[in-house]
Specification:
four-stranded mixed beta sheet; alpha+beta; 4 helices; about 30% strand; Ribosomal Protein S5, domain 2
């Protein structure tokens, strides 16, 4: 797997990422939104990705642009890492418990974007982080990564646990989808012959 670096600069944000998909879960994340940092560290730790992510953004407005652009950049690097889409499992899923929360996540690196998110929160925020941006992050990542993503909240009362279990499930599902399958021997996991 490749170690990929990417930078995205707009009038709203400046996002720099370096990710090693064959890492051990080491992280250095600074978005300016402490709970979002925590979620991204959970994603990388449980996906076993080494993630260095630094963001300067217009947080004086709100956290929407930072969350969106981080999703876009991470989606871009997932897409770049899997551009050939050969010898990979392609599909990945996880059911992740975290105390009261239980989250199901399934993804397909099939090159087509589809997003179906059934997660609801009881509050608007955890800390300064707007919880509705969990959905926005997932959509932004899936759009930029050209991947199919379904997630469900099967249980959960504590919004912190629901959000964190979602990011853990994303990391685990992605790690499983990008895993190499030696039985494919360089072929594409599709009956079409390519994706």
């Amino acid at each position: 797997m490749l170690e990929i670096e990417r930078r995205r600069t707009t009038n709203e944000t400046d996002v720099t990422v370096k990710i090693d998909f064959d890492g051990s879960g080491e992280t250095s994340v600074e978005t300016g939104i402490p709970f979002f940092d925590h979620l991204l560290c959970s994603f990388a730790r449980h996906g076993r990705f080494d993630l260095d992510l630094q963001v300067n953004g217009d947080l004086e407005i709100d956290d929407h642009h930072v969350v969106e652009d981080v999703g876009i950049v991470l989606g871009d690097v997932v897409h770049e890492a899997q551009r050939e889409r050969v010898s990979i499992e392609r599909f990945g899923s996880a059911i992740v418990p975290m105390d009261d929360a239980l989250i199901m996540m399934a993804i397909d690196l099939g090159g087509r974007t589809y997003v179906d998110i059934k997660i609801e929160f009881k509050k608007e925020h955890v800390g300064s982080f707007v919880l509705d941006n969990v959905k926005h992050f997932l959509r932004s990542l899936a759009d930029a990564g050209c991947l199919n993503l379904h997630t469900r909240k099967l249980a959960g009362e504590d919004d912190h646990h629901v959000a964190e279990a979602t990011f853990k499930a994303l990391g685990i599902s992605l790690a499983r989808a990008i895993q190499k399958d030696p039985a494919l021997a360089g072929s594409t996991p599709s009956t079409k012959g390519n994706i």
